Amino acid sequence: MKLRSTQVFYSAAAAALLFVAACATKKQANQTLTVRTTATPTGTTATATVGPGKKEGIKKFGDVINGKVVGDKGLFTVYKADGKYYYEIPDSLLGREMLVVTRFVKTPARLKTFGSQYGGEEVNNQVWKWERHDKQIYLRVPSYSVRADSTSDMYRSVKNSNLDAVLAGFDIKAYNKDTTGVLIDVTDFYNGDIPAIGIPDEIKKAYKATAIDATRSYIDTIKSFPINTETRTLKTYRAAESPTDNSNASITFELNTSMLLLPKTPMKARLLDPRVGFFGQRQTDYGTDAQRSEVTAYIHRWRLEPKDPAAYERGELVEPKKQIVYYIDPATPKKWVPYLIMGINDWNRGFEAAGFKNAIVGKPAPTPKEDPEFSTEDARYSVVRYFASDVQNAYGPHISDPRTGEILESHVGWYHNVMSLVHDWFMTQTAAVNPNARAAKFTDEQMGQLIRFVSSHEIGHTLGLPHNFGSSYAYPVDSLRSKHFTDKHGTAPSIMDYARFNYVAQPGDGVTHMYPQIGEYDLWAIKWGYSWFPGNKNAEQEKDILNQWTIQRAGNPLYYYGRQGTSLDPRLQSEDLGDNAMKASTYGIANLKRILPNLEKWTYQKGEDYDDLQTMYGQVITQYGRYMGHVTMNIGGLSENFKTYDQKGAVYTPIAKNLQHDAVDFLNKQLFTTPYWMINNAELAKFDNGVVLNRIKSIQVNTLGSVLSSSRLARLYDNQAKYGSTVYSVADLFNDLRGGLFTAGKPDAFKRNLQRGYIEQLKGLLNENTSPSFPGATPAQLANAGLTPINTDLSDIKPMVRAELKKLDASLPKGGDAMTAAHYADLHGRIKEALNPTRPIVNVGPGGAQRGIQAAEPDTEF
Description:
Elements: H1 5-28, E1 32-38, E2 45-52, H2 61-64, E3 77-81, E4 84-90, E5 97-106, E6 122-133, E7 136-141, E8 146-147, H3 155-160, E9 165-175, E10 181-185, H4 187-191, H5 201-206, E11 209-212, E12 218-225, E13 228-239, E14 250-261, E15 280-285, E16 294-299, H6 309-313, E17 324-328, H7 337-345, H8 348-352, E18 360-364, E19 382-387, E20 394-395, E21 399-400, E22 407-409, E23 411-415, H9 418-430, H10 444-462, H11 483-489, H12 520-530, H13 539-553, H14 581-595, H15 599-602, H16 611-632, E24 638-640, E25 652-654, H17 657-670, H18 681-684, H19 692-707, H20 710-723, H21 730-741, H22 749-767, H23 779-784, H24 797-811, H25 818-835
Parallel strand pairs: 8-15, 17-18, 17-19, 19-23
Antiparallel strand pairs: 1-2, 3-4, 4-10, 5-6, 5-14, 6-7, 7-9, 9-10, 11-13, 12-13, 13-14, 15-16, 20-23, 21-22, 24-25
């Protein structure tokens, strides 16, 4: 048959294409294939190299793993053959859920990021599930954001709309000898650039890191244990910048990925209750009897079950089947190890309230000789990790089973420089009455006890307890001046409050116990969260019992839980003590007045410069600012007491009118009247180059901005609308402030600064819509945080501000010396501009009248 010319052309072209394709296929057989996969349920996209493009088919086991290769048996049997790593996955573990935790092992020096950056810190955690489909194994990431019980009619519907993401796919290389398991190659997976087991995005962005450099990356080891595997990798990323040397054009990390088998029988979940503080997890549950989708929340807690249930039921203290064990990082200085362990073991008193003895223990990490397999990165072990860092902090995280809230392990982060933080706080808050705090360097015993206190606090977090900022309010201020009371109770009923050290006690009181300790609330919280109930009760049945316990303690401040994250309730504050901020702060300032003149003497070190004097002078100013913040929270405040329908009384109640008046009176006397006692020229001359006085002015103006924030004024108006003249009003506030800010006589530089600040704050309220606005936050969420929204254009704020400015304009004097006359003329000009603006308004203070919720400088927190 004769072909047309066009047919000849297309045939030739086809032949050429076939030849090119054949060459490409041959070439591809020697390359790796890059596959895009979904790394997380939130949709993060990862790049994983999962092997050659040419599929080789399933081989005999012996053709892949020869008889000379010895497998490391455990969760999965791990083989290393010809430079590659293989998992032998038994059929019995397909579909089982496994917790995967990736941590840094080693990091570059001077690494600065917003997240993890030290060896031992967590990078990521996920749940993995290995599944087989035909001739491949897929690694999937389950999501737990929605659920329904498997017996529920909604179960199938939920499963259909909650598909598990696929992280990676693997060809089955061989079946094991009895065909009860499969063999896969995981080399390229662990060497790949996958967010779940690699460095965080913020580090990549900070150092402009791109792809992994395979020539400078490798798998160090993969070890298998009975319920986990541990994979250690070294990953080098090509990077435009480096924390150490940009000429390397790279950044290198050593990481460990733990894969831990989750319990086949999940722990019984305990429902969260906002009246008792526990960390928890929320899920939308479609399997309940509610006639809507219902959010259920489970607390995070360790699985504690009695060895002897009968003895437990008789009320005897019983050891748990499995003790909670924390190991101290071998990198920890030896002299601090006993104190860290004391802080851990202190919680046994808490667990006794729940019926358990010897429930928790701290131990030094075993030496390589004692246990050659022990690793601080191993997910089976909880560890207090010690970081060589100048960060002034410590933190107590935990990792829990997303199905039930069971805490599985914790790595407490302990930064070396937390000692500097507690030193400065202890000295600033107690040196007036405590000779042990009057030194630039404390004795090892004194510092050890401070470490013990911080250790107990952080371990509390790892047991599931959040901060209880409402606890310290339970103790009357004057009780903190009693030696008998403080020896027994410390400074607050909960060590989980930020009730640091006793700044209330005065010289002559005889108080020597300055610390918080595990107290009445902590015992109650552990009892509530960890008590074991016999009879196989479900979560709802347990909830009924726990609710009765909670109601029995309602109204007793010893058992009150006050959440963190709101500026509504003046009881819920950081670093405060006692039941009256004005009274406690007055005592605190009296002690600061005693401490400040002695700072040079108490920080003296032969041959050293004045850095310590400068630091501690700054700490005194910061502590003073904290007191101002504690008092300010009373103005426009609401007490918050969460309740259920079976409890009487209000959840939200305005702070008493007289207390709000007392708060403004305190500010007028202690802050808005110049605190000259803070200006010690003899000491300032040793280090201050014109900074300190401006810091004092900033505290004054920032506090004033906080008092006049639109959120605070909104609550005052809201309370007045509800309760009338029985509550403190905006008119009361303006009258009280005016009386303190514009006193008779010549204003000094501080007072002039304040008077200008007051008019600028009013100007901002008058000429801007100052309602808080945070993208994505609803009005209810803002109000919940204390950022009460208000439309100032339509509210009563602007008429009241306008009237206040006119009142000021009419009452301000004129004349005086040159500076005073110029000052009053300027104030009149500012008022005129506020009432008839001709230029854009620029607010003063932290965000002007819009923000400034807390007057104190930000604290370094643990």
